[in-house]
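Summary for the steering committee. The consortium agreed at its last meeting that each partner would contribute one worked example illustrating the joint modelling workflow. Our contribution is presented below. We chose a case with several input lines so that the handling of multiple components could be demonstrated. No manual editing was applied between input and output; the record is shown as generated.
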Amino acid sequence: MKKGDLLSFLIFILLIILLPVISGSTYTLTVGIFSGINALVAIGLCILMGYAGQVSLGQAGFYGIGAYISSILSVHAGLPIVISAICAMIVAAIAAMILAVPALRLKGHYLAVATLGFGEIIYIILNEWGPGGPSGFGDIPHFSLLGYTIDTTTGYFYLVWGLVAAVMLFSINLINSGTGRALRAIHDSDLACNAMGLNVTALKIKVFILSAVYASLAGSLYAHYVTFISPSSFSLFYSILVLMMVIVGGITNLWGAVIGAVVITVLPELLRRFEELDVLVYGLILTLSLMFFRKGLVPILIEKIKKLREFAVAKH
Amino acid sequence: MKKAPKRFLVVLVAALSVFLLFVNAYAKEPYKIGALFAVTGPASFLGEPEKNTAIMLKDQINKAGGINGHPLEIIIEDTKSDETQAVLSAKKLLENDKVLAIIGPSTTGESMALVPILNTAATPLLSCAAGAPITQPVKDRTWIFKTPQYDISAVEAIYGYMKKQGISKVGIITISTGFGDAGKKALLEIAPKYGMTIVAEEKYGPKDSDMTTQLTKIKAAGAQAVINWSVGPGQVVVTKNWEALKMGIPLYQSHGWGSRKNIELAGKAAEGVIAPLGRLVIWDKLPDNHPQKALLKKYTQDYVALYKSDPGTFGGHAYDSIMMLVEALKKVGPDKKKIRDYVETNIKKWPGTGGIFNISPDDHCGLDKSAFEMVVVKNGDWEILK
Amino acid sequence: MLTVFLQFLFSGLTVGAVYALVGIGFNITYNATSIINLAQGEFVVIGGLMMWFFSESLQLPFFVSVAFTIFSAGIVGLLMERLTIKPLKNPDLLLMIMITVAVSIVLRGILMFSFGKDPYVYPAFTEGEPLSIYGAIIQQQTLWVIGITGFCIILLFFFFKKTMVGKAMLACAVNPTAAKLVGINVSRMVMLSFVLSAVVGAIGGMAITPISLMEYDKGPMLAVKGFCAAIMGGLGTNRGAVLGGFIIGILESMTAGYIHSGLKDAVALIILLLILFFKPAGIFVSKAMHQLRKY
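What follows is the complete predicted structure of the assembly.
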């Protein structure tokens, strides 16, 4: 791993460990849990968009698959939760592959609509045939592994963010590997890559599947925390929200996905004081943030830090 | 020189003590209740009147001296009709605001997400949503209550009336949200009990513009009546489509129909539409000695004077939840368990907007089909059917 | 049999016409800027709600209300472009689209505050009994919706193909640099495209409200369907948007009628995906034409 990434990662781990210690409030930790769950989906989308150059408006579909399959298997088939979650990831991967093969022939707005269509179809399937239909279903078991059940907020916080850390580790290594470089090359020019013998399509499909698997994991974590799910949490609205997280955080940096997820999840909580005006203020903040922090929060932060360092060096 | 300052000091201390006593007598600790309403988002037509009702009642109660001298504080959070937001808001209320009880949320889905949280936090929840799973099975709903009527009760009212009209074949059209789904399940479940055959089951989305296709299918299937189960603009669109198609068979609506706005929006198409309505909507048609009439009249008139619009059925659910809590607080004080026990055992023959409540350890809702009157729209106004 | 089929068809045409108008709105902005303006749905809502405001609340005469509504919508489009699009230099396309999403949130919030959450309605343009064709009824307002859509299409056709301004607008997205070189004021074209798409959206809203009512949050659903319609027909081609809109509307209705009403939205989406599979740039856009545009 590059030095900068390693440092960021260590600070990240430190923050995760410290937060529950500093703030014992289950409310704060719950906000943290949902931020972490959203971060998982955002990281997958960030790799897909920032590195492989593909857009997806259908991540909510994979998120929903993760939540529903894991819940159904653990409730109705009595399977252990970890197994159910893994099965859900497999289903999501297969769905991603089925979508990706035809969809990745499309470009830009057309690809966006194809993924949107996919997400909506999943939503409709869940609404029509999911257990409970639009009313959803509950009594989903809390996460448990080898007999240990995690039903405390602090425990779940560590579980979710531990997984985020693991996923970040894996993803950072992926970006810095040969595959990662190939991905960035694709982002710049499909044609050049094809000319050099890279199997562009295969690589794109793999990244698509990866983003689906991350989203599915997030969905399972959601289901086993709230213990009640209904299709309304897995709609197009959520897909657009995740997209917003990635753009606000900065599409060119994986940490952007994490920061973006935290910001978008925390922001409505900070706006509670505005009562009914909160929606309006939220929209205004988003608009201004997109207009003035165009590159994304993390890249701009990195720029500022670099400038600061140059400034410090120059003085001497 | 020494006497003057001493005397002055004595007077000062005496005045201060009197002042402090005076101030303390009025500075009684506020009773804090949390409220979760869908003020924005797809269910905002539920949350808005609920929130308005909460603010109005809180002000009225505090003007009258509070609850045993304690001011009432209702901390309202917007769940944006979203379950995740409901969870976050509930945790904030429980943890940061340390509320004694929570009123709401507005939808069944959100309420279901809160059941484990409120049970674990041993805090009473008085939901303003209708779904039966909110309070059943009762043994897993120790801390959970709800004030809207059961959907099954509304369906029973409809079927009971239909049977008297000699109708046996019904077509149902429902909205594809939790509200419509709950209605559909109830309609299907109770049908055999009243000898009803469902000849067609149709659906539509919350923002759909035209339902003539679904209604045409229902007519073609040989239905003798149509039942629409939705809230929001869908009710009005279905009504207008029904009239335009000249279906020739009566249209029944769910209890969500209970708002003058619907008659206004549907115009002449609303003539003849029948629905089971809570008495809040038709209070002025009730006989004066009806146990609910006085409170319905006061509530409606106060609400209209303050907000220039009808509270509708849904505002009433917040009224019932709040007034139950207020009564409990008055009698047992700020103790969560005592409040819970009070609501479970002492709300009997309790007149509210939704009906006359009889809450018990077996039934944390306490309403049945007698909470409804069958009402028809006649000459642009409600008329109670006998 | 025929009666039932015709009834389904009329229902599909009613909703399809609105999707078509929304799709056309998308095309206008896209053709001038390559941006997909996801606040397009909000323009439709503004059309319906402002028309109610002028004709019912202020009791202004019909044509005056129509004029004021169109004017209001145009102002909103103008403000949106001047405040959020113009200030950005060389923006990334995806960023612009997300900005339109954020703006749609703001617009929805403003509408919610101004009009509340209730639905609104006003009388149909012509009062009278619905027409009956082979036993299937078609409301007069539906004929208005379809007629107005057709009228807009014809007007826009002449505008884009025959007028200098229209042709200039089309040139802007294909190659803004070349457009500037030949003297086109690209910035003004962009502004005009937003105003025009707002007006087209508002017209759709004005026409559909007597049938399906209008409330502050109807925007997103219409935007998604309109976008799908535009994509299905080929982004940028108005006849594509029209065909796409009617196909989606009729597919929804036929699926609800002959298969299962719970699946109506899904079937339309599946057909959309299948069309994209065979024609990756939509029905009327050939692969060659598609390669010319960056997006």
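Chain A has one domain: 3-315. The first strand of chain A starts at residue 137 and ends at 138.
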